[in-house]
Amino acid sequence: MSTGTHYEVLARKYRPQNFSELAGQEHVSRTLQNAIDSGRVAHAFLFTGARGVGKTSTARIMAKTLNCERGVTHEPCNICPQCIEITKGTSTDVFEIDGASNNGVDDVRDLRENIRYLPSHSRYRIIIIDEVHMLSTNAFNALLKTLEEPPEHVKFIFATTEPHKLPITILSRCQRFDFKRVTLPKIIARLREIAGKESVTISDTSLALIARKGDGSMRDSLTAFDQVLAFCGNSVSDEDVATLLGAIDRRLLAEISAAVFAGDTQTVLAGVKQVDLVGYNMRQFCQELIEHFRNLLVIRSVKKPEEILDLAAAELEELHKQLLHISALDIQRRLTLFIKAESEMAYASFPRLIVEMVLLKAALLAPLVPIQELIEKIKSLETAAVHTPSLPWEAVRVVPAPAPQPGEAPSSPTRPSHPAHDVAPTPAQTAGHTDWGRFVAYVNERERLLGSVLEHGSPVKQETGLIEIGFPAGSYYLTAALEAEFIAEVQVLARVFTGAETVIRVKAIEAGFADAPLSLAEKKKNDAEQLLEDLKREVENHPVVKEAERVFGSTVTDVRNY
Q1: How many CB atoms lie under 10 A from the CB of residue 497?
Q2: CA distance linking residue 502 with residue 494, whole number of Å
């Protein structure tokens, strides 16, 4: 490690000084080197890409390559005065300008004045403008003329993270190079190389955590490595790295996912508790779960996952071990649950609860039966059904008889005859009930509102010239039936139905009044309940149903009569 009062951070100390050290941007290095070797060096370059991927470092290497005292070559010597000055940022012929703080038209005009003069002791005056998208519209317009007709001794190198903000007139006058995010294995390899030079003992697991923290940026990864070394010294433990960087240990993700597939809810919730104890953001944890299960799905689905996933070799090997008895469909079902839960967490008041609920649901998912297996079971069930009688409820259908006309004989309702469905009524319930039912049906035909009230009444007494109807005490139907208008209208209909003057009496009856037969509504309800009970018994004992329960390993939960 560096000692003394001045400490140079790793990102500066190990900044690439030639094209061969530029990790992850080999396509840029090769193109620029070929251009230099062939003498086809453009007057303006545009380097685009995420932060910390080597845009400015490449610009400096390019400047050294063009101005190196040993000649224009595809690699700078880094020992001549020109290379050393450019490395230190003290060259009078290489201008590094921050576009964010020098974005006015006056700044560009000053620049145009300066580049009119020949370089003091170099081949080229090289203008490097970082974050060039921050220039104002007027500044771009002032720069445009110079880009159209640049002096032979001037080269422009622009760098930006947001190329879409540049005017098309500027873009069309530059050779554009898109810098990629540095892959995880390349960052890990670079960190391992630096750890060796700094005499640091650290595992590949910790290096992977640091590299993942950089999110494709070599500079951010080196900054995180600096932070770890400041905390841990020359001996770095995995636990310290995970705690310091606020990252979830990949082993914990592996334990939780294994518990999910095993249905171990205890371990699942214990894992969430551990995440919460270290103060990790629950939504970020859910996102890492999604990434973890996505990695599992890719590994299970393709032959060469290492070409798709940005993972270290050790991590790939660990994930392979988890997938011995897990199908892609099982992973996909759970991944869908996590994606939905993550979207719900944006405005959630209890993010930990959402994570716990989705993990429990994922752990308790019932296994899916392959479709071919289901088809075979259905075929065996169909074969069994051929040799068994039809299900009893298929023939059950009650067809109401038409309302009788005065003086007509009552017609019998159509209903399948089945011993289990026929329940013998008590004498009190059958007394005068057939005539009462015909009368209520007649009233329903002519005055539906009157009939709907009479359906809830019991024919306490039926004689020539008298019908006495009982309604439950305190009920709405009793109140409606006691209305003089109701009684008068019913008496008119009774006279027509019976052919004689008939007195209608209405009385209240208490619950459990033994002498009163059931009302039509009560009888209908009782008949329906009894029929359903009979059907349930027959369904549960039917051979086809029993065979279906055996084949599918299921039970009857509900029986309905349609």
Answers
A1: 20
A2: 6
CB atoms near residue 122 (< 10 Å): 21
Q: What is the CATH number of domain 184-245?
A: 1.10.8.60
pLDDT higher than 70, residue 213: yes
Say yes or no to pLDDT of 338 above 90: yes
Neighbours of 189 (CB within 10 A): 15
Q: Return the sign of the alpha-carbon dihedral for residues 55, 58, 60, 62.
A: negative
Return the CA Rg of the chain.
44
Lowest mean pLDDT among 55-69, 430-444, 458-472, 487-501: 430-444
Identify any residues that bridge with 207 across adjacent strands, giving them in sequence order: none
Rounded-to-integer distance, Cα 128 and Cα 117, Å: 17
d(CA 559, CA 273): 44
Nearest Cα to Cα of residue 154 among 69, 41, 47? 41
Q: Which two tokens stand for residue 505?
A: 């009496």
Instruction: Report the distance separating Cα 94 and Cα 75, nearest Å.
Output: 18
pLDDT tens digit sequence for 221-279: 999 999 999 888 888 888 888 778 866 777 888 889 999 999 999 999 999 998 888 77
* CATH superfamily of the 422-529 domain: DnaA, N-terminal domain (3.30.300.180)
DSSP letters, 401-451, are PPPPPTTPPPPPPB----GGG--PPPHHHHTTHHHHHHHHHHHHHH-HHHH
**For 323-353, b where at least 16 C-beta lie within 10 A, e where not — what string?**
beebeeebbeebbebbbebbeebeeeeebee
| Domain chopping of the chain, boundaries | 10-178, 184-245, 250-363, 422-529
| CATH number for the segment(s) 250-363 | 1.20.272.10
CA 94-97-99 angle, 5° bins: 155
pLDDT for the residue 416: 37
Residue type at 177?
F
Nearest to 214 by CA among 225, 206, 204: 225
Alpha-carbon torsion angle 113, 117, 120, 121, nearest 10: 120
Report, as an integer, the average pLDDT of 420-428.
39
Instruction: Name the class of domain 10-178.
Output: alpha beta
pLDDT digits (tens, 9 = 90+) for 88-114: 888 888 988 888 777 677 778 888 877
Residue 22, token pair as written in the block: 């530029």
What's the start-to-end Cα distance of the chain, in Å? 83
CA distance 532 to 561: 7
Q: Please check the confidence at residue 406 and state whether its pLDDT lies above 60.
A: no
Matching fold, domains 184-245 and 422-529? no
DSSP string, 483-551: SHHHHHHHHHHHHHHHSS--EEEEEEE-TT-TTSPPPHHHHHHHHHHHHHHHHHHHHHH-HHHHHHHHH
